[in-house]
Amino acid sequence: MVDSITLGESLRRQGVSRRGFMKFCAATASMMALPPSMVPAIAASLEKARRPSVIWLSFQECTGCTESLTRSHAPTVEGLIFDFISLDYHHTLQAAAGDQAEAAREAAMHENAGKYIVVVDGSIPGPNSNPGYSTIAGISNYDTLMETVKGAAAVVAVGTCAAFGGLPKADPNPTGAVAIQSVVKDKPVVNVPGCPPIPTVITGVLAHFLTFGKLPELDHLGRPVAFYGQSIHDRCYRRPFYDKGLFAETFDDEGARKGWCLYRLGCKGPMTYNACATAKWNLGTSWPVESGHGCLGCSEPNFWDAGGFYQALSIPTSNVTRTAAAAVAAGAAIGIAAGIANKVKKSGAKAKHQTVTVDQLGEG
Amino acid sequence: MSSLTLERGLYDLKAAIDAPIASFFSSCVHCGLCAEACLFYVETGDPKYTPIRKLEPLRRVWEQEYTLFGKLKKLVGLSKAVTDDELEEWKELLYASCTMCGRCSQVCPVGNDIAYMVKKAREGMVSSGHAPAPLVGAATRAVKIGSPMGVKWPAVQNQIKHVEADTGLKIPVDVQGAEYMPLLSSMEIINFPEYLGALAKIFKQAGITWTLASKAFEATNAGHQIGSSDIERELVVRVVDEAERLGVKFVIGPECGHAFNAIRWDGPELIGRPYKFRVLHIIELLDQLRAEGRLKVDSKVTERLTFHDPCNMARKSGIVNEQRNLLGMVATNFVDMPDNGIHNWCCGGGGGANSMEEYEHLRLKAFGRKRWQLESVEPELLVTACANCRLTIEEGLEHYKMEIPIAGLTEMIAEHLKEDESAA
Amino acid sequence: MDFLLWVRGPAFNVAVAIFVIGVVARLLEILLLGRAPSHSEPKGSQVGPGIAEIFKRSVPLPDIVKRGAVTLVGGYIFHIGLFITIFLFVPHIEFINSVFGVRWPGLPNPVVDAVTVVTMVALVVLLVHRIRQPVKRMLSTSEDYLTWLVTFLPILTGWLAYHRIVNPYPLVLGLHILSVELLMVVLPFTKLMHTFTVFISRWYNGAIYGRRGVQS
Q1: I need a surface site. Which of A361, B215, C163, C211 has the fewest CB within 10 A?
Q2: Mind telling me how many Å the CA of C167 is from chain A's nearest CA?
Q3: Does A326 touch chain C (CB under 8 A)?
Q4: Which pairs with CB-CB distance under 8 Å and at least 24 residues apart come from B229-233?
């Protein structure tokens, strides 16, 4: 059910001071790379914002995205925002189940037609796959998705599975999994990838939507530029070691202990665009590289098939040694055949040789 | 109707290609450095004389016949066939502007032996009827008369008489079981007959048994120059048969570059078996005798002199120190030219080039290299060990009005030999 | 991103296959033509001089240094620079290690960066020289210009990728790998084969002259 109180009122009721509220607005502005002059506008909009209805669809997912977003070790304003949203449908968090849950979803869709946000995590078996791979209440994921987004204002694909297909889509993709944006074409879709995404990123996107009524600027993969515009490599604090050519070669060698670059241990930082290096995880505690493990590239499409996690980016994903061995054999066969043909031709030419005599030269 | 056809030429080009040639054409990266080593390009500045370009017809045969990719291109009509016109155009490049001196082979960064390929390419030129007329004439005379300059045994006998009279020594002929059998070049017989006398004197002092062969006195091999292995073989066989019939231990090549090359290196390949004798260049033999102490001189040449290393001797057979040892023995003021030894510049007349009067202007232009070398040392005397080089250089010196006398090394040594008391 | 994964995966496989098949077949095609046996008395050996020539031929004659200075200097800078950028750059060493199981220390990235720039400059100079110098101009065919291009592109795209000058990074890295694949596919059918045949041709040259007792 949708309340009619504003976000500002809701926060005050929960004991959040004006100061605390302004701090959140400032933090949101800076994270979105918006100028400080925007802060009052953000504050004013959020103050007056009505609780939007959010329908959260979970498909072929591991629930990691929900875990990430709801995991708060201390009450934070982000957490409170999240609480503020009228989460009218969420498999893990809702109390209702079965027909009651489905009925709640349909009611929310009907009451907020054209205004609700659909958040999706998990990929779906594509329209050409067997729908039986993933169903909810007997209905295929694809049908549920297409039905639900009809009246949506926007679709937020949370997590790499929803944004790009993720783990289910990894080779050999038995369920025919596809990304949300490959089937939802007529609604604005924003991808918030990551496996899982950083909590502040999702709330930043929602805050943007609440403030400006539209989605933030997106890159060529549909990701908010504010959070996904920079590569891990360009923001990594270990970059000077890459530049100087100092690399850890194993996880416990001198280089690893000194915090050198993890390129040789498979870090996909150079090709990965995310905010991990700056926003970090667990309220800014740390992130994979800082704790000594290379970036997996988890916010990029097909990162599961991008070569081993512990193989450097410059290593091909195919089995080169096997291909080369087969090619040597094939090349040898062709070469020997060509060599024999050459020898035959040469002997033939020699056989056709007529002895040159000076008499012949005289005629010519 | 001529039996020399393009088809025959192409078969011979095909037959001439081997693994080294295939590797050379595969490796050529068109760097053009071979041109910088070729005296014809360096002195004329005309890029058409670029050595590797001289082999373009051979290269196309290789590509079209012996490479998968080339055969494919031929199949789809993307390759250019070798034509009679092209071979005619290449006559100048393969004969007049190339002496097979081998400097390009020395310089190519990827190791191409371009001179080797030129000789092979000439095979196709011959059987397709594109060998130069002067060389055809020389080959005909060599096969039919016995020498490319038409010298017959009676003429040689005449020279022998003169030499015997001058030196007081007997010239042995057709002596069975003699150790050494020297060969002569027509050039020497006609132009430098002192050579024979020099041999007689030196051999007497060294005390070695030797003989000329009346049926095989000619060393020059017009087949080698024209590039026909058949004719080269025919001429070599005459020497081999006689040498083996007389049972000599050594055949001695004269002071003549390509003749030595033909008998020393090509002969066994042409007859398909090793000789029953060994082959030495006269200079190799003389240096051996010197090292054994069997050669003694009692006077020396005091003029400032330098040595022109014939290509076939130095660069193609590794005979470099021998002549310098000998000069060390008989000269007091020897100075090497810049770019000497195996780096020497060709005189411009070898490989049959000298016989092409039509291209004399090109040879004289190319002589500029030799001129530069000589002007760098300003010798009073030039010594060499090849009659053809001598002739070519004499022509060049005359043209440029440079007065430098030339001497043959063997003669020079003979002139300064210690007089033997028992000379009869 | 899909483009990058495609060039690192199936496209690379295809390129390796064509490259290896092409090189092996061509080497056999050359070697199996054989050489006629020699019956003349050798004056020196073949094997020692043959192997020695592979190295000695890298040292030019003094007068060639003067006359062919641009070609020689440009050529050496290019080849040495190429060697350094390929074999002494850490990401490349990782790649070689993954295929051949051997690795060695690399140079610091800024050093390789500088060498790459010098190498590209040398290549451009050589191209201009090829167009303007009469001998090279006469010898050059379209193949010479194609091979220049497929050699230049990997170096250029690698440098652009390293500096992240083109965005997004997966695109420029993908282009770099694709240009390398193009080079691999073109190599066996052009003069770039000299990468492998130079050892054979230098060997034959050394062997032929070594047998004749020529001490170079």
Answers
A1: C163
A2: 10
A3: yes
A4: B229/B123, B229/B266, B229/B270, B230/A355, B230/A356, B230/A357, B231/A356, B231/A357, B231/A358, B231/B126, B231/B139, B231/B142, B231/B143, B232/B262, B232/B266, B232/B270, B233/B270, B233/B271
